[in-house]
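Table S7 (text form). Paired inputs.
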Amino acid sequence: MSVFVLENYMEEFLKDITNWWWWVSVVLLSFLMNLLASYSKPVLDKMFSRIGTTSTKRSDNVSKYVKYYGRSEIKNLELKQDINFQFILVFIFMTISFVSLGFSIQYLNRYDLTSKFIFYCFISFTLLSIVVALVFMKRCNELIKARAIIIRKEKSHL
């Protein structure tokens, strides 16, 4: 960004803070943020208290996968296909997130940010794609651990 663009934003900001609607919107937004924080605090506390129990939950998921996929050779092949499918989904969603990030950077470079809606849509879509990819990556990791356990059990029986 050039200095000229920053000066324009500064002048625009100084004009905005002299208007009464800007102050009203700041007060309303701070009130809404305070209200949102008070309601989200118990949810966040509960979510962060579960972090210690996620390792046991993950091992329960792995043991569940071992029981389901370890029954027969056909289920073992199904496990391999499921792992490959999860890898493909991770790749697709990470590609979507990088493309969306590229579009948002292009939009940022090409256009004036007076209409920020499209830029925020691209950024939101990028973050959503990354979160979905991480969820699939977590499941893929659990499936790989289950496959390793199944292979270890098969080798011990031989």
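Next pair, protein 2 of 2.
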Amino acid sequence: MSNSAINAAMNAAEQAAAQAAPAAANLPAQQTTGSAVAYPVAGRKITTEDRIGGGLNVDHFLKFTSGGNIQVGQDVNSTFKSLKVCLDLSEVQAGFGISYEDAAGTLHYIRTTDGVSTDAGGIWEEEVAKARRIKPSIKPYNSWQIPFVLAEDAAPGKAGDRVGYTTVWSSFKTFSPVFDEAVKKYGKDAVVELELTCQIAQNVNKKVYGQAKFALLGEADQGGE
């Protein structure tokens, strides 16, 4: 995998992070393999090009449901079996996340791109400590923040709206090879077209969830001659 576009970007980030100090919070680097990212240095964002990222600026967020549908925005009735979207590969950001279930059975997803603040404005170190009081074995996983553009109307979204999705551990694995293939074929700054679908899956506790699936359709037609 040394020729992988993902690995090259991630390795660059890892080397840069290793040279910077201090290490993020009090959390040790995660020992991972494959397309792994080194744990981020506090206050320093890591992206696919190891550069500063500004977070997701989108009109709606996507949710992949346990019913095998894709939900657009907050409306639970706005669901689709598939969506066609465009993606500027240069806008994809790398980060980290944790997920855990509390005593009430509520599933929590906490994410960061800088190892200091969470996407929701909390303190990353405190959120990880809170999660570990419930689940001591919890470890941050690699995550992608992805700003898609709808290629078709998908109420409440319209063609041209930006829709965001942040991967969990399972969808990180399904998105990474598609991202890698797109970069190899079209370059890291290309805009590509994808089809999104949702596959029903089960975790180790037999809980059903919706797993995001991504299919590369080709380079997007951006008009012009």
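The CA atoms of residues 61 and 104 lie 25 Å apart.
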